[in-house]
Amino acid sequence: MSTLFAILFYFATLVFMVGTLYRISVYTRTPAPLKIPTTPAPTTTGGVVLRMMREVFLFESLFKANLWTWGLGWLFHASLALVLLRHLRYFTEPVWAWVAFIQPFGMYAGITMLLGVIGLSARRIFVERIRYISTPSDHLMLVLFMVIALSGLTMKFAAHTDVITVKGFILGLMYFDWQALPSSIALYAHLFLVAVLMMIFPISKLLHAPGLFFSPGRNQADNPRDKRHLSTWAAKLDSEK
Amino acid sequence: MADITAPAYRIIPIIPALKPGAMEGKGPYVASDKINEAIGFPGQLVEDWHDKAIGKMGELLSKYRSLKVYMDACVHCGACSDKCHYFIGTQDPKNMPVARQDLMRSVYRRYFTLPGKVFPKLVGARDLTREVLDEWYNYFNQCSECRRCSVFCPYGIDTAEVTMAAREILDSVGYGQKYSNEIIGKVHKIGNNLGLPAPALIDTLEGLEEDVKDATGIDVRFPIDVKGAEVLLITPSADFFAEPHIDSLIGYAKVFHATGTSWTLSSMSSEAGNFGMFIGNYEQLRTIAMRIRRAALELGVKRIVIGECGHAWRVAYSFLNTLTGVGDGADPNDHFATMLQKQLDHRYKQPMHICEFTWDMIQDERLTFDKSANDKHIITFHDSCNVARGSRMGDYAGGQFDIPRNIIKAVANNFFEMDPSTTHEKTFCCGGGGGLLTDDLLDLRVKGALPRMEVLQHVVDEHGVNFMACICAICKAQFTKVMPMYGFDRRMIGGVHQLVSNAIILSKE
Question: Which candidate from B62, B153, B397 shows the least CB-CB separation from A30?
Fold first, then answer.
């Protein structure tokens, strides 16, 4: 079983890294021929950076759109971020001080993350408009996060797992010195689904994460009169009369 | 046509329940062979439309980062789902921006993504069938490209870009829309969207000079094709004869007269509107815009000023520098742009909106007004979507909201705002933008005006508003047509420069 998981994680990491980098390279290479920033658009690059930070950390546009979706979405994402950071303790030896510091917060974040996902799921099921636009994969994505959170919380609060051995396994993966994984259904489920999540990242709507940074409506400075914006294929037209 | 009526106001603006299939149908009139071929599109639906359409889609995905990112990034969160005026007015779920995008995204997933190729049902992917193509034609002609949805999208996904891509694909397989393509043909052939030939235009302008002389006793000129004039005015051709548009044209002329600005129109480039944007075709967009460059070079003008027109201002402000070099900041080695930019006077923004021009003059105290001349009007301001969300004015973010309002307040005494959730960047489209201002879409236009009419009714009831000013030729035409269906006087809509025209004090010389 340990070998299977080792192979699975190497493979998942490869798919995640290569797939996501490939996507990003496609976005980078695809030109944006016209200036299309959406109002209220900053006029300077510094302004664009600030706007992007507000979108990434505060979900500014979503806040304007719908308070429920914003609240649940933000709760989910902020919790997920904390949970991910908390998991750094499995990857570092000795554990970095700030990672140690956030451990208790990360623990509660597991619970709030689950609440966020349940709320978002309920929206998808009960709000007519959202139900209409939801595909099976939209629901399944939330179920995936739900089970990951549940299996993780189970190991924390119900059926304890030998985290020292887990850490040994992960560090072993990182330094090519393979160690055994404790046998636990919750742990197997947790790790398997995380691997699934990593593998579908570059081929699913999870691409919204890198996508935001490449969205021309959000990442362009509003200065078309002051600087001539020209993409490669559009520039070629200039020579034709 | 007679059975088209306005929908009832919502008591409180709740999100409407879904009425699936409410706007199903064939869509607007399809362009004829002649119309399509005149602008280089296949005359009618080609045999191999399926492969051609998928091929075109692949091409657009590689040329437009917007489309590529927007196809991938949507998570179906629903933030946009209640933001479209056409959804609010029609309750058809396919008019929710996300659902409209999904008409294309489902096809994108099927042909361009791994999960869509392997598990189409799971991710909502579908083949491009004839039914899907017809659905595209119908629903992508129910989007006015107003970008309201994109303001609320957490990733900035702009349905306008998707609609443009869809129309571009449809045109490439010979499934174009009559209204837009016919107009594009006219602008190439005659020089403006309304097909007004140069002699008729010159005649109209002479008539206007007489009218203004009769009304004011002053010789206000409407010059055309004057070489060496300082300002080239590019304005929507509706300004030349449609009501209430023409009153704003008179307003611009009076501002130029009162400030002693030498200006000219161009008979070759007598149109600010650019329907190339509506159909998402870069070549058309560029070719139409190039007429402005040619006119500027031929007439040797120092400044380019654009009249009251929403999408024309978006094209001018956001795209003209890219398309034609009208603007500033070109690379020194960029000869195409620098040859024009050297000619222009960069103490002023290029191009400049007529409202920026007028507001600058007001600030310089070069204009005087008798505000009481507008006392019969109790005014509100409708932010036109393309000005609000596709462009800017002045030298700071948000200038496009302040400057027209500043002008109104400088020339009139009674001004009231509408509900702030429907103004500034959250403004609603008039319901007729984006190439939909045609009578075969009147039902859609009337329903799409609902959210604006509701909040207008509010200020009418509360403050006795009797005039809604705007700065868009399409808004003016659309509201003139649909406002009577909501029980308003058609003369309630007018331009900002119509108010300027009423109040401006002209000197005799």
Answer: B62
